[in-house]
Amino acid sequence: MANTILVGAQWGDEGKGKIIDVLTEEADIVVRTQGGNNAGHTVHIKGQKYILHLVPSGILRKNKVCVIGNGVVVDPVSLVEEIEGLRKLGVRIDKNLYLSETAHMVLPYHRELDAQRETSKGKNKIGTTKRGIGPAYGDKAARTGLRVIDLVDPARFKSQLETRIKENNEILKAFGAQPLSFKKVHADYRAAGDYLKRFVVNTVVLLHEALRRGDDILFEGAQGTFLDIDHGTYPFVTSSNTTAGGACTGSGIPPHRMDRVVGVMKAYTTRVGEGPLPTENAEIADMLHAMGREFGATTGRPRRCGWFDSVATRHAGMVNGIDELAVTNVDGLDSVETIKVCIGYRDGAQHYDYVPNDIEALSRCQPIYAEFPGWRTPTHNARKWKDLPVRTRTYLKALAELSDAKLAIVSVGPGREQTIAV
Ligand code: IMP
Questions:
Q1: Pocket of ligand 1 contains residue 115 by CB under 6 Å
Q2: N or C end of the chain, less CB within 10 A?
Q3: pTM of whole model > 0.90?
Q4: In a 10 Å sphere around its CB, with 0-12 CB exposed, 13-18 middle and 19+ buried, how is residue 178 labelled?
């Protein structure tokens, strides 16, 4: 398989969990490199649904090693809950999971601050998952963060946590929020530290040993290109680099060791949270919600929906260097009569074939659409490219061409078997 970076080519929720699960079959190691438990990767296996937030999806397959890399922000208490939840479902977790000692931690004051900042922003809120992701990465950049390596050193953790809680309680008081009890936080996180210490290693060394052995590594991206802190629709973004470069910095594997980038995109567009979504469309949202689709895996929020936006996916191809495309949720469009695809943006006299950085300009942009006849046939039973209706194939080929990448995988449902290699 070679070393593969998998990224979301839209605003997150592209169905990465399922594609990662499919690609994991050929990988030896699966690594998460950014984000935290704001992610929710859903995988369906033999009628059982698994939602993974921090643990790489490779954990669901035998003989795969999973790594939570240095670029991830980890809430230790949530990670323990997730591991225990997976064990209850019969998933084996012991020598197949490793946690980077230099990953930064999300602590309760980060979650509180995330919630308080969102509330104070009123109608300008970002619509975060309230998992404390922004404040945790903020501390990392400000060099006031606590890392997993600190958690597993009881004396150091105690003194650093005490200092950080004191300072953050002052900020929380300024918001009119309840201060946190050091004693409680310390007890909860020490217990999590004791539980997790068996997983904690230098993951950079571990991954380079794997490279020397010739192992194939899959880098599991979370969120999507337009939620990237640098390349997304700032400030309506998450706080990490969700684009391909994040896989290098978040793992310690250099760019020249990466062999391919797979971009995952839905056959339409969705977004959770606030911020511009040029092709947003109430009709398609109502249709998908009525089908029971497009509710967030982490927060349960209904996702905003719109037509496929090839301006965005082409832009994603550019910043990620996407070699191959996986198009998911094709069956979501089975009943649509005429399918629209955005091929350009118009803002008055200005025409764009890339996503403009000025958030106000982007919010004003009107999509220019091409139309495709719908196939109006169920596709969920298709297992080969030739099983798909001709109109579906025409539509998918057009998406790949417009996005400037090679179509490699098509997904027509949540199951592993509902996957077509092109
Ligand atoms: P945060 O990452 O919780 O700070 O949220 C920032 C923005 O990213 C919000 O619009 C969230 O809805 C969005 N976001 C964060 N994680 C995900 C994800 O896994 N899927 C989709 N959107 C996400």
A1: no
A2: N
A3: yes
A4: exposed
